[in-house]
Structures are given as C-alpha cells and as structure tokens.
Inverse folding.
C-alpha cells in the first residue's frame, strides 16, 4: 500500500485519539467515574477483540502458549490498567493538551529504559547517539515547561481572580505529574511488549489475552475504589458513547493501526506522528471545551516536538547505518538465517 495511504491512516488515528481525549475530558468534568469508565472500556474492548480473534483463527489454530508468554501477557494487562487509570485521573485534573504533551515523552523515556536494560547502546561519539541523548533531555525539559509553567493566557479575555488561578495551577501541576507517571509506565510497557512479541509474534492473540487480564484487574480496582453504586448504571447518554468510543479507538483499533503502520513503514515513521497530537489537542480544547490557551503550553509543546524529532532522527540514522552495513557484508536476514540453520541441522542428522 502506498505511503500516502499509511500517512492518511496514521493522521486519522492521532486525530481520533485526541478527539476521544477531548470527549472524555468533557464527561469527566460532568462527574463520570474514572474507575468505572476504565472497567467498562476494557469489557467492551475485550468483547470486540475476542470476536476478531475468533474470526481470525477460525480456520487455523494459533501458536501454542507457554507459561512465560502468559506471565508477560499478565504484566501487559496489569500495566495497561495502571496506565489507563492514571491517564484518565490526570486528564481530569489537566487537559487533552497536557496529556498529548506528556505522551510525546514516551520515546525519550523508552530510550532511557532501553539504555538501562542494555537494549540500546550509549556511545556519545556517534552523532546519532548524541542526537537521541540531547533530544531526550530537551523533551523532558519541554514536558516540565508545560507542566510547571502556564504563563500568560493567549486566547481568553476573561479576568479571573488570584484564588481561582492558584487552584487551577495546582490542579494542572498534579495532572502533569500523574500523566508523566502514566507516560513512564507506558514506556516500560512498550519494552515488555517488544520483548514478548519477539517470542510470540501474534499481536492480535497477545493483545486479546492481555486485555482479558486488564478486564479482571480493572473491575477489581473499580469495585474497591468506586463507592457510589449509581456510578455503575449505564444510561443511553454521552457517557455510554464515550465508553464505546474508548473501547474501539484506544483498547482495540489504535494498537492494531500502529502495528500495521510499523509493519508497512517502520517504527520511526509511526513515531513521527506523535507531535501532531499536541496541535489537534490545542485546537479541540479551545473549540470544544472552551479552554484557555496558555503561553507555557505553546512553548513547552514546541520544545517537546524539537526534542522528539531529534530522537527520531538519531534512531533513523542508526537504522540506515545498520542496513548499509548489512547490505555491504551480505548479511542474511534473521528469518532466512534461521531457515538455513534449521536445514543444516536436518542435513547433519541425516
């Protein structure tokens, strides 16, 4: 499929994700329970995924599972619930703009975790590594700017008193800290997911199993944390629409679209679309939520975007050098190498 089609799908995926965050923010402001929202979203999402998995494997059996894969799927489900809960709590205190800004920290946090676990080499003599390191530091600085500094209002003409501004600033700071924690955990989840998919390359089956654990854990957390029985009653209103949209877009579709785009164009190409979320969030927050656009959000978002592209450029440089080296020395791709090794072993046994 042409790259233009992949680009269109990825832009649409980012747009709908940010639009969903705007819808969720509006419903959280009207009193929707975070915990019940996450629980029902995982319930409906699991139903959709189970149906898709059943249809996919109706004519063939999926690869067998072992205890290690099941345990890692449990970790994915556990961290998934943790991230969702923190994200929507933080969104309630902050805004879609703040959540989009902190989400752009995922590449930086992932790079740090990969270096710690020696999945990524840190050689500051290389330009690519310098770019990734500097980009990581710049991205974190930008996120701190968005979180800690609001600055002058740009789009609002409403005069607010100092007490209200102080209250809003404290909520913004709390929301930024919660969202940053969720972002760091999401980076950890990506590392675990990458490790798992290498051993069990069936994304749909893996996500379905992980979501089954998320379903159980999210209902357990909601039963403990939500004290109001009326919060569990679903009515045919915007809250139900919001739950269905979250199940389809966040729990199911976004993961599949990202995996498909990675297979088509590569991970770096997909990552380049993250800064678009800030632009969409700023516009939607102002139009649909009546939010005030602050100078700190604009400056911090721009700084994050610069750092993010620096990390992406460094990653692209490393991949280009690796592919050039492999081509120069005629290195056999891993799948073909495994096939030849398997054939040679059979020959030796014979």
């Amino acid at each position: 499929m042409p790259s233009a089609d992949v680009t269109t799908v990825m832009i649409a995926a980012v747009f709908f994700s940010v639009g969903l965050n705007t819808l969720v923010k509006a419903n959280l402001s009207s009193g929707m329970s975070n915990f019940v929202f996450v629980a029902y979203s995982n319930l409906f999402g699991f139903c959709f995924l189970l149906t898709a998995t059943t249809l996919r494997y109706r004519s063939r059996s999926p690869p067998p599972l072992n205890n290690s894969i099941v345990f890692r799927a449990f970790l994915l489900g556990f961290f998934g619930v943790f991230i969702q809960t923190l994200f929507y709590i933080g969104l309630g205190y902050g805004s879609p703009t703040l959540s989009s800004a902190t989400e752009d920290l995922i590449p930086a946090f992932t790079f740090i975790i990969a270096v710690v676990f020696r999945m990524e080499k840190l050689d500051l003599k290389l330009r690519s590594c310098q770019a990734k390191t500097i980009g990581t530091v710049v991205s974190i600085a930008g996120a701190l700017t968005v979180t800690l500094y609001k600055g002058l209002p740009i789009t609002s003409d409403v005069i607010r008193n100092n007490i209200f501004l102080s209250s809003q600033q404290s909520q913004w700071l709390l929301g930024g800290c919660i969202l940053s924690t969720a972002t760091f955990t999401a980076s950890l989840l990506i590392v675990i997911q990458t490790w798992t998919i290498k051993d069990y390359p069936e994304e749909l089956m893996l996500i379905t199993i992980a979501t089954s654990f998320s379903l159980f854990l999210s209902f357990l957390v909601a039963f403990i944390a939500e004290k109001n029985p009326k919060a569990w009653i679903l009515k045919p209103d915007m809250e139900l629409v919001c739950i269905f949209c979250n199940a389809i877009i966040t729990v199911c579709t976004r993961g599949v679209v990202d995996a498909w785009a990675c297979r088509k164009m590569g991970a770096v190409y997909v990552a380049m679309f993250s800064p678009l979320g800030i632009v969409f969030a700023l516009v939607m927050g102002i139009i649909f939520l009546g939010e005030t656009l602050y100078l700190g959000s604009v400056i911090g978002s721009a700084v994050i975007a610069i750092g993010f592209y620096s990390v992406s450029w460094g990653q692209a440089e490393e991949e280009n050098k690796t592919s050039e080296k492999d081509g120069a020395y005629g290195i056999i791709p891993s799948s073909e190498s495994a096939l030849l090794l398997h054939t040679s072993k059979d020959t030796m046994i014979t």
Summary: The chain has one domain: 3-349.
